[in-house]
Design goal:
CATH architecture of the domain at 5-119 and 161-177: 3-Layer(aba) Sandwich
CATH topology of the domain at 5-119 and 161-177: Rossmann fold
Number of helices: 7
Keywords: ATP-binding, Cytoplasm, Disulfide bond, Nucleotide-binding, RNA-binding, Transferase, tRNA processing, tRNA-binding
CATH superfamily of the domain at 5-119 and 161-177: HUPs
Number of strands: 19
Domain tRNA-specific 2-thiouridylase MnmA-like C-terminal: 276-344
CATH class of the domain at 5-119 and 161-177: Alpha Beta
Oligomer: single chain
GO molecular function: ATP binding; tRNA binding; tRNA-uridine 2-sulfurtransferase activity
Helix content: 10-25%
GO cellular component, one term: cytoplasm
Order of helices and strands: HEHEHHEEEHEHHEEEEEEEEEEEEE
Distance between the termini: 50 Å
Disulfide bonds: 95-192
Shape: globular
Length: 359
């Protein structure tokens, strides 16, 4: 129970379904004085109190479990290391993979519980081949992308009561009818361990800020920066280039090179990506029955899925979209779909440009 309306209503529905429900709030930070800033974050003292009040209203036991060390090691440290390597990580994917459906689920099973129930918007479907993960009914709230890291064993022990709900407005109305004080609580957003939203400043404190060069694809210096960690592929704003492009058009970040502390920029067309690949992959339930299959690929939580062809090749998942992707950064997660079903996911390790290197 995060302290938000979704997890509170999910717990209520689990109670209504006759399950033996225990509310658990995850303490993911040792900073005891952490308070919420606006609607950012999901793991503050205020959130824990909101979760406790919801549990009391539902008449279920409530506990706070301290997973701060695992969160620090598996999510925060990974986030920092990825940026240091010039990649763009998704900490929500790592949290679901390492904390909510690994550490939390492991402890729950050890204590004799059957499943972890959350307020995620996704649907589970039972088939002859086992349980499948599908998109939620409400496309605007669908969270199947960030759950793409779950494997067959984890899916067998999960429960998503909100997946078939047509809209978030109905969830809020239900919470109000149940007398839950979080009915109109704003959604959390941004990165929970950076509650003020200043990712650049937070990273500067963690990895340091060393000045370096901004160059174009030919290697010509066109500007300077205060730290390569502050840039990500596809970025346009904040470049402060001293040398304008010959055609006068804006330039975008094409690559971040941490070893040389260099940021490479170029025209928008150079962001087109013809192929992505990665070797850190997993399947959400049944693995594909072929090493070469059609699918749809989603590379961000709120991006549109793109028709593509996927191959298992030399220990990698290699995906070629029908139309080039735009602005793909190594470190992002690519989630593969077959219609509404999540097939699996991989962390993008490399990309192949759709544009000649001379651009």
């Amino acid at each position: 129970m995060s302290g938000g309306v979704d997890s509170a209503v999910a717990a209520a529905r689990a109670v209504d379904a006759g399950h033996d429900v225990v509310g658990v709030h995850l303490a993911l930070s040792r900073a005891g004085g952490t308070l919420r800033t606006g609607s950012r974050g999901c793991c503050t003292i205020e959130d824990a109190m909101d979760a406790r009040r919801a549990a009391d209203r539902l008449g279920i036991p409530f506990y706070v479990w301290d997973f701060s060390e695992r969160f620090r090691d598996d999510v925060i440290a990974d986030f920092v290391a990825e940026y240091q390597a010039g990649r763009t990580p998704n900490p929500c994917m790592r949290c679901n993979e390492k904390i909510k459906f690994a550490a939390l689920l492991e402890r729950a099973l050890e204590l004799g519980f059957d499943a972890v129930c959350t307020g995620h918007y996704a649907t589970l479907v039972e088939t002859d081949h086992g349980r499948e993960l599908h998109r939620a009914s409400d496309a605007a709230k669908d969270q199947s992308y960030v759950l793409g890291v779950l494997d067959a064993e984890q899916l067998a022990h999960t429960y998503f009561p909100l997946g078939s709900t047509p809209s978030k407005a109905l969830v809020r109305a239900e919470a109000a009818e149940r007398g839950l004080t979080v009915a109109q609580k704003p959604d959390s957003y941004d990165i929970c361990f950076i509650p003020d939203g200043d990712t650049r400043g937070w990273l500067a404190d963690k990895v340091g800020a060393e000045a370096g060069q901004i160059v174009d694809a030919s290697g010509a210096v066109v500007g300077a920066h205060d730290g390569a960690h502050a840039f990500t592929v596809g970025q346009r704003r904040g470049l402060k280039l001293g040398v304008p492009a010959a055609d006068g058009k804006p330039r975008f970040v094409l690559e971040v090179r941490p070893v040389s502390n260099t940021v490479v920029v170029g025209p928008k067309e150079a962001l087109a990506i013809a192929e992505i690949a990665g070797d850190r992959y997993s399947w959400a339930g049944r693995a594909p029955q072929s090493e070469d299959f059609d699918c749809e690929v989603q590379i961000r939580a709120h991006a549109d899925p793109v028709p593509a062809r996927a191959q298992l090749r030399d220990g990698e998942v290699v995906v070629r979209p029908q139309e080039p992707f735009e602005g793909v950064a190594p470190g992002q997660t690519a989630v593969l779909y077959d219609g509404t079903r999540v097939v699996g996911q991989f962390t993008i390790a490399r990309t192949v440009s759709a544009v000649p290197a001379a651009v």
